[in-house]
Write a structure and sequence with these properties.
By secondary structure, the protein is α/β, with parallel strands linked by helices. It has one domain. The chain is 18% helix and 32% strand. It contains two helices and seven strands. Strands 6-3-4-5-7 form a five-stranded mixed β-sheet, with helices on one face. Strands 1-2 form a two-stranded antiparallel sheet. Strand 1 and strand 2 form a beta hairpin. It binds zinc ion. Zinc ion binds next to loops.
């Protein structure tokens, strides 16, 4: 757990290992996506997006929570065929819009 100190005093948020565990659970069984809660604020569900060549089995992955706006980014990972891949030829600004990806805080450690 990482401690942040802000105006409201210390608060804690899930570290990267906890987010990775959540992501692994979704990759292992994509049906988990709709029932997986945020490791940070417990909101259900979390959101994912994958970016890579259409039809490829690997790409970049994003996992985030629309409620607390924390999440992680993984540069290369296996992507189950159940998930739609956003083409790498899509301009970055359009990727964010296409998948309704908010400006979330990426947890790196
Ligand atoms: Zn959350």
């Amino acid at each position: 757990m990482i401690e942040n100190t802000d105006a409201d005093g210390p608060r804690y948020h899930a570290d990267r290992a906890m987010w990775l565990e959540v992501f692994a659970g979704i990759i292992n069984d994509p049906e988990n996506l709709l029932r997986t809660s945020c490791p940070n604020c417990a909101a259900v569900p979390v959101r994912v997006a994958f970016i890579g060549p259409p039809g490829a089995s690997a790409g970049s992955g994003l996992l985030w929570c629309d409620t607390c706006l924390f999440g992680i980014s993984i540069s290369r990972m296996n992507v189950p065929s159940e998930f739609e891949m956003i083409s790498t030829s899509t301009p970055v600004g359009d990727i964010l819009e296409a998948a309704s990806i908010p400006d979330f805080e990426v947890i790196w450690e």
